[in-house]
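Notebook, bench 3.
Goal today: get a predicted structure for Zinc-or iron-chelating domain-containing protein from Frateuria terrea so we can plan the truncation constructs. The sequence was checked against the plasmid map this morning, with no discrepancies at the termini. Length recorded as 128 residues. Pasting the sequence as submitted so the record is complete.
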Amino acid sequence: MAHPCLSCGACCAFFRIAFHWSETDPFLGGTVPADLTEQLDPHRVVMRGTQSKQPRCVALKGTIGEAAYCGIHPIKPSVCREVEPSWEFGRHSLQCDKGRIAHGLRPLTPEDWLDPSGDNAPPLPQSA
């Protein structure tokens, strides 16, 4: 089963991605490439592209709603790691839904997390 986020990318092209500048400073343990950010205020930076009228994070690769992914996924900002896809962990995500709806995509449902092959079904009880 493909992860629904790999055919989405809507949250990366809807929200301003702002976070503390220290996440770009390797000396302080930061991992986000500083050249992918812009200064927002004395304490925060934003991912380039997310301050525009039609935001799109500079790290987003691919086509929204078809095939999209974060080009810096393993080192993405903390605010990105905090966004949960709706129903991946058994709960609704307003952020996910807002981004998807803004791009003409339907909100995710619990059924989007079921493996159509049936591999995620619980094992059948063994007969004695």
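The longest helix spans residues 94-102. The chain has one domain: 4-105.
Flagging this for group meeting.
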